[in-house]
Each structure stands twice: as C-alpha cells, then as structure tokens.
Design goal:
alpha/beta, Rossmann fold, binds 2'-deoxycytidine-5'-monophosphate
Length: 221
C-alpha cells in the first residue's frame, strides 16, 4: 500500500522512449494500486490521427493548434491510434510548443481530478516527471536498447495481426527517439529525481518487481 504521508491523488509518473515498456508497467501499476491511468501518448496520437484525417500538413502549426483545441477524451478511444504511421505524426506535432501548451492542461486536469474519484493516477509519456507533474510522488524512467524495443514493437504488431517490417520499425524508433529527445520544449529526458531502469534484459514481471521495490523504498516513513 502507498502510505498516507503522500498528498491525494497520489501521482506516479512513468516516462521513457517508444516501446520501452511504459505502457505495460503503467497498466500493472494502475491495477495493483487501483489508480486511474492516462497514456498521454494517446493524446498526441489522437491529434496525429486528426491531422491525417483532416489532410492537414503536420508542419502547419496554426491548423494543428486549432485541431489540438478540439480534442476530447472520447478521441482517445479510437481504434487505429497505435499504428507506426500515427505515432510518427504524433511525434512531429508533439514538437510544436503551442500544441504542448494546449495538451498540458488536458493532462494536468486528469492528474488533479482522476475519473471515478480514484485515490491516485498513473500517467505515462515523455515529460510527465519533468513538466506535466514535476511534483509527482514517484517518477520512473524506463530505457531499453533500440534493438530490444524494435523487437518488442515488431512482435506486438504481429500479435495484433498487423503488417510489420523489422528494419522499418527500427528506423521509426531511431527517428522518433531523435525527434522526441532533441525538440526544444519538454524533450525526452529523465527528471533529476527519477528512478531510471534499463529494461533491456528484464522480463515484464522483473520490470514490475523492480518498479514496486522502488516505490516501496520511497514510501518508507
Ligand atoms: O508513447 P507513444 O509512442 O504513444 O507517443 C507517441 C508520440 O507522442 C511520441 O513519439 C512523442 C509524443 N509524446 C510526447 O511528446 N509527450 C508525451 N507525454 C507523450 C507522447
């Protein structure tokens, strides 16, 4: 259990590059503690899908900002958000500072007022521990070798019956890492007080055990 010294709702921030295991760990944490979870990548993906559907050029900042202002939580439930194509556009629009400003409010509202009045939230993304929730009670930053991440993504797509070409996935991951890490606003980087965990050689279970151990050590009186 997470003890009472923490403010409510308790916030767990999980950041890291594409396919580092953030989603799986965040789901497990949310189930374990009965917290609400927000995959913030889905917000950028929903915007990416809007941009694609609208035929807007992802570099047309004014139009992309307009579309960002139209996003709602319902947009996060669409089916085809997880494709590599949508992920690539998401990463491009995520580099526009005014887009990030619009989406920041969306994410903070969720952290302050979680649905179903849950006592805590798990937010995963790229800048949760640094920008969205700098006062998060727990900050986890997952990393993994790019080849391990490409293999994970490749298997995930295959299991979902989607067409996947390994070399292309690896290239997309390298491109996305560069774009997410080098952008001027809220780049992908661990918060100074984050627990950084390399999951390259860890199973899903071992990763979760290591994260729970970190939380329990922070959670001592
Ligand atoms: O986590 P993901 O692969 O679903 O994220 C898709 C893109 O969205 C990612 O390449 C960069 C952007 N993103 C971001 O800039 N900040 C976040 N907190 C989450 C995602």
């Amino acid at each position: 259990m997470i003890n009472k010294k923490f403010t409510r709702p308790v916030v767990i921030a999980v950041d890291g590059p594409a396919a580092s295991g953030k989603g799986t760990v965040s789901n497990s944490l949310a189930n374990h503690f009965d917290f609400a979870r927000l995959d913030t990548g889905l917000i950028y993906r929903a915007l990416g899908l809007k941009v694609l559907g609208d035929g807007t050029d992802a570099s047309d900042k004014q139009k992309v900002i307009l579309l960002a202002n139209q996003l709602s939580f319902d947009d996060l439930n669409q089916e085809n958000l997880r494709s590599e194509k949508v992920g690539a556009v998401a990463s491009r629009v995520a580099a526009i500072p005014d887009v990030r400003a619009v989406l920041l409010k969306f994410q903070r509202d969720f952290a302050v007022h979680p649905p179903a009045e849950k006592s805590g939230v798990v937010l995963d993304g790229r800048d949760i521990g640094t920008i969205v929730c700098p006062n998060a009670n727990f900050k986890i930053f997952l990393i993994a070798d790019k080849d391990v991440r490409a293999t994970r993504r490749f298997k995930e797509l295959q299991e979902r019956g989607l067409r996947a070409i390994y070399s292309q996935i690896l290239r997309d991951i390298v491109d996305r890492d560069a774009r997410d890490s080098l952008r001027s606003v809220a780049p992908l980087e661990p918060a100074k007080d984050a627990f950084v965990l390399d999951t390259s050689k860890l199973s899903v279970d071992a990763t979760f055990v290591a994260v729970l151990r970190y939380i329990s050590t922070q959670n001592k009186d």
